[in-house]
Design a protein that fits this description.
Layout lengths: L1 H19 L9 E2 L5 E2 L6 E7 L4 H16 L8 E7 L4 H13 L4 E5 L1 H10 L5 E6 L18 E5 L4 H11 L5 E7 L3 H16 L3 E7 L5 H9 L4 E3 L4 H5 L2 H10 L3 E2 L3 H5 L4 E4 L2 H16 L10 E2 L4 E5 H6 L6 H6 L2 E3 L1
Parallel strand pairs: 3-4, 3-5, 5-6, 6-7, 7-13, 8-9, 8-10, 10-11, 14-15
Antiparallel strand pairs: 1-2, 12-14
Helix pairs in contact: 2-11, 3-4, 7-9
Amino acid sequence: MRKGLGLLLSGTLAFALAACGSNTGGQPAAKTSNGGSTAKQEKTISLGLTQFVEHPALDSVRKGIVDGLAEAGYQDGKNLVIDYQNAHGDMSNTVSIAQKFASDKKDIVVAIATPSAQAAAKTIQDKPVVFSAVTDPVSAQLVGSLDKPDKNVTGTSDKLSMDKQLELIQKFLPSLKKLGIIYTTSEVNSEVQVKEMEEAARKKGIEVFKAGITSSNEVQLAAQTLVDKAQAIFIPIDNTVVASVEGVLTPAQKAKIPVFASDIDTVKRGAVATYGIDYYKVGKQTGEMVARILKGQKVADTPVEVTREVNLTIHEKAAAAFGLTLSDELKNQAKEILK
């Protein structure tokens, strides 16, 4: 009887020690309100992701953000819950989404494109806001300085050189004297690019014709006015125009007026060429930044990052359709020639 009792006590002690050792990571068990204990659990991050409009370039940004976070250890559905909202190109929707994220008390908000970033920054001031694919964060009043963000907002910029884009157009059209630009008048990033292109063109003696729009419904009509005036049409980084780029391409193709873009995805859709950036890489860069902030880095210590790498992409078939030929110089410079 005494021997059986000893065996019973030994088994009970062994079971208790095994239960204590089952807490993951070797961390002490957290006490519950009734004096018991439970294993320490990792906090699930709540992230609000707002995108102004869906088109291939911004969709690539979004994918890059998610992948960048995952590689840094934050996986949607595990230790991260991403609430993705699309504003469908409507400014009022960007505000409603930002207000919802504020009400839901998201741990961090990521905004793709300038209008969504502006709405988030204005509405949410007690949590980090990280933007992506914003051309001029200072002009958009998101930050006072690229090097030292002065609020709860930072992010990545997709700013490109208009001088370089104009030089590219001239390589296809050496006699260029009249350039058309279609842009959204309510997008700050577009206005900045138009001014920079006007300055670049002025130095080369090129006249610029502008067609401003307020919604996607006006894209094709605006493009039609330009084909009657310009020798080529340039599309800046403009979300409303890019989302409806077929409305530019259709009348331009009929009139044989070549269209040049600011992003690679628009070239894939039928524009002639661009010195563009890889928007997936921009998104991934943004995701890595978000991860650093989630791990404790202060927004004030996180400078805005500007994408420096640009690559020449040419759509050979589109160029031919517009009556353009590729020089050996362009072929050698191009990172990618689409057939």
